[in-house]
Amino acid sequence: MMYIAIRTDDGRNIGKISFYCSTLQVSRQAFYDYLERKGKPWKYQPLADAMLKIHDEDEENADYGRVRMYQALRYQKEIGKLDGIKIPCEATVRSVMEQISLIHSPKRKPNGITKADREARKSDDLLKRDFTADAPLKKCVTDITEIKAKDGKLYVSAIFDCYDLMPNGLAMADHMRAELCCETLQNASLRYPEIRGAIVHSDRGSQYTSSAYRTAIQKYGIVQSMNSAGGRCHDNARCESIWARMKEELFYNRGRRSEDYTIEALKTMVWRYFMSYWSNRRICSAIGGIPPAVKRHRFYSALTIAA
Prior knowledge:
- By secondary structure, this protein is an alpha/beta fold.
- The protein has twelve helices and five strands.
- Strands 3-2-1-4-5 form a five-stranded mixed sheet, with helices on both faces.
- Helix 5 packs across helix 6 and helix 7 packs parallel to helix 9 (about 210-220).
- The protein is elongated, with a radius of gyration of 26 Å.
- The model has no long low-confidence stretch (mean pLDDT about 90).
């Protein structure tokens, strides 16, 4: 249609319309309908502008696919930031994203780094791959991931809540000894004393079977859970998924190499990602398309109202 419009000077050269429509097998009525629509503003322009604004709020939002963009739009609408804009179906959101070039590339999968100690005493698998919870600080998952740096390697240990994906505890170091996992437990306990009595699930890495970690578990009143025998990655899939999102959104999809940054610089990046962006602004599909802090706030607000 655009080609015909150009060749006929937007239909003003009437003598050529019939020729080009016949050659390109386009009806004259369809061409005239196109000319009528051409001067009108795009009906999805306000929606596209809202998408671009969400996209630009944080650089990690560039990884939003159609599902999280749709959820982000609904959340923005819910909190009153998109008054006057109708949120269409998910398929239309995808179509608009394609037209404004917001579709991102496929994801990568990380490799696990903890090694099982086959001789150490193990704990039972209390989660059985059920990573859901009906309240915060009841069921958690923990793991370690490795990030290569310019001056060595950074190891990140975290405890994530199964209810809202909140990072209850976070610790980082240039080693992956048991002390790192113990520090994560300590930080979680200091931040959320109510975590006492919660289940914390891990893989069967030697850090989690060590006497130091078991002592820390007892000190903070944590109930330990471990992957089932055989070390299947799906037994702690929630943590693996979160590590993958972090590395994609900080490095792979930004065109960055972690090896270009020092350990201290990486610590700042990871801390900001989890404690600022992930907790407060990232749309998480697994918890209904809202940020973790919002889900937790709503839980305690509901308790207050019920009381």
